Amino acid sequence: MIRLNCDKRFRDLIDRSFVEEVSAGERQVIHNHIRDCDGCKRYVELTARTIRGLREFTFTSEPDSHAQVRQILADHAGIMRQHNVQFRVWAAFAVALWMSFVGSALVYQMIKRLAVPMHFDTAQVQAGVLLFWLLPSFCAALCLLAARRENRGIA
Amino acid sequence: MSVLLMTLDTTAETETAKIARGLRERDRELLADLVERYQHRLVRYLLYLTGRREYAEDVAQETWVRVLQRGSQYNGRQRFDPWLFAIARNLAIDYLRKKRKAIEAASLPDDPDAMLLLPSSGPSPFEAAARSEDAMRLAVRLQILSPLYREALLLRFQEELSLAEIAQVLGAPPTTVTSRIYRGLAALRSAFEQGGDSPEL
Question: Distance from the CA of A20 to the CA of which of A145, B30, B32, B201 falls in 20 to 30 A?
Answer without folding.
Answer: B201
